[in-house]
């Protein structure tokens, strides 16, 4: 049994730890919270305008819809803080504003929104998007992940691991899928929603007479990304092998386009800048077997696209879909071809080759991976046949977050 002296000592220690948390105004326009505990000291800082913008009171915030109710024009930019205190009992920051409005913020809620670099990085890496693992030809064996098709459909833990592999390594292979033309559709719907394009919600890849797409020939298919002519380009490509060619060809080729771009940035910075800044025209004109439903898809974008943080976001590369119209000044076009040649040289040098078999589902990040195929020959009793589908990354990341954080409320 604990002695009274011990209980009193523990209570005093707890009070000291709580009492060491203080809040104060910090010029210019910031509120600072200093936390001192037995584990160490930490300081949190928040802009006053951010605190007012994110006031959690019932007047400003609609809890069930998780939405602000206040209008920006009410003046959060110009209403300053009159007083700040830290409520030790409630573990809340309490703010009184110059217009007499009052706000309170739980300390745990504030910590999760800390403006410090460690908290920002933790949120971006753990919640926003997992950091990508770039890889080259020599690392292919180490990054290749395989999953069982039925387990992906039935077990959320396996689904989560599969989606993480697609987000981090950029590709994965599912094994033992049935001989069913709906496999790609079922996988897409297991994630969320299939992406419908001008080629339908699912598409077949096989040799076709009078082919309207280069992929429907038996000739070699050079390294490329699908649909660079779409502003909202398909996120992942799900390719189910129903029948594989028994000829020596028909093998898959694959290169990590982001790794190629990073090599270019390090070793050939001038070429990198050209491919990052000069837009090419990507085009797809025709129809997919129905002349009554023609399409004319066109998008201008560089080969290498970066996001708001300067990270790789998208690679556009498809020689068969690059328009002969090049809507840039003459000198930029000449520099672009030099840089493009170096990019393709690096991509070819890092390409791996493997051959899926019937029942394999090859899935990859279409914004990142360059994929292709070696030439093959069909035979009367053996015609190579794949069925594919697309899913957007918005849908994939949303599904991944619900699997990682099933009880998330904000």
Distance between the termini: 42 Å
Rounded to an integer in angstroms, the radius of gyration calculated over CA atoms is: 28 Å
Task: Give the biggest sheet.
Answer: 6 strands, mixed
What oligomeric state do the depicted chains represent? single chain
What portion of the residues fall into strands of 2 or more residues? 25-35%
- Could you say which overall geometry the principal axes of the C-alpha atoms support? elongated
Number of strands: 22
Widest β-sheet, arrangement of strands: 9-10-20-13-22-11
Structural class: alpha+beta
Mean pLDDT level: 91
How helical, in percent, are the residues?
25-40%
* Unreliable spans: 1-19
Helical segment count = 12
Briefly, what is this?
The chain has twelve helices and 22 strands. With 410 residues, it is of the alpha+beta class.
What does this structure look like?
This protein has 410 residues and is an alpha+beta fold. 30% of the residues lie in helices and 28% in strands. It has twelve helices and 22 strands. The strands form seven sheets. The chain has a six-stranded mixed beta sheet with strand order 9-10-20-13-22-11. Strands 12-21-14-19 form a four-stranded antiparallel beta sheet. A three-stranded antiparallel beta sheet has the order 1-2-3. The model is unreliable at 1-19 (pLDDT under 50).
């Amino acid at each position: 049994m604990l002695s009274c002296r011990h209980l009193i000592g523990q209570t005093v220690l707890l009070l000291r730890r709580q009492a060491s948390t203080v809040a104060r105004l910090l010029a210019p326009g910031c509120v600072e919270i200093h936390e001192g505990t037995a584990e160490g000291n930490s300081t949190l800082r928040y802009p006053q305008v951010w605190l007012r913008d994110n006031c959690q009171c019932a007047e400003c915030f609609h809890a069930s819809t998780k939405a602000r109710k206040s209008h920006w024009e009410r003046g959060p930019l110009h209403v300053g803080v009159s007083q700040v205190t830290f409520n030790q009992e409630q573990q809340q920051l309490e703010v009184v504003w110059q217009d007499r409005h009052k706000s309170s913020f739980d300390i745990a809620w504030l910590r999760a929104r800390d403006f410090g670099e460690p908290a920002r990085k933790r949120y971006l890496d753990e919640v926003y998007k997992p950091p990508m693992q770039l890889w080259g030809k020599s690392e292919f064996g180490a990054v290749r992940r395989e999953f069982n098709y039925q387990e992906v459909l039935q077990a959320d833990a396996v689904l989560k691991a599969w989606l993480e592999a697609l987000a981090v390594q950029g590709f994965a292979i599912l094994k033992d899928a049935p001989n069913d033309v709906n496999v790609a559709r079922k996988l897409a719907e297991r994630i969320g929603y299939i992406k419908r394009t001008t080629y339908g919600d699912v598409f077949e890849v096989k040799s076709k007479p009078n082919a309207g797409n280069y992929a429907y020939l038996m000739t070699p298919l050079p390294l490329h990304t699908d649909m660079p002519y779409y502003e909202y380009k398909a996120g992942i490509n799900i390719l189910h092998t129903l029948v594989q060619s028994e000829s020596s060809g028909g093998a898959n080729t694959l290169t990590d386009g982001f790794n190629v771009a990073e090599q270019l940035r390090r070793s050939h910075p001038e070429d990198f800048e050209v491919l990052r800044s000069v837009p090419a025209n990507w085009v797809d004109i025709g129809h997919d077997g129905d002349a009554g439903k023609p399409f004319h898809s066109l998008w201008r974008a560089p080969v290498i696209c970066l996001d708001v943080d300067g990270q790789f976001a998208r690679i556009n590369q498809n020689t068969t879909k690059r328009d002969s119209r090049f809507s840039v000044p003459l000198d930029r076009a000449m520099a672009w071809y030099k840089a493009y040649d170096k990019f393709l040289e690096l991509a070819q040098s890092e390409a791996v080759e493997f051959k899926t078999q019937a029942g394999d589902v090859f899935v990859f990040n279409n914004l990142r991976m360059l994929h292709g195929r070696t030439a093959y020959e069909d035979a009367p009793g053996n015609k190579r046949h794949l069925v594919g589908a697309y899913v957007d990354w918005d849908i994939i990341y949303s599904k991944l977050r619900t699997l990682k954080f099933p009880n998330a409320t904000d």
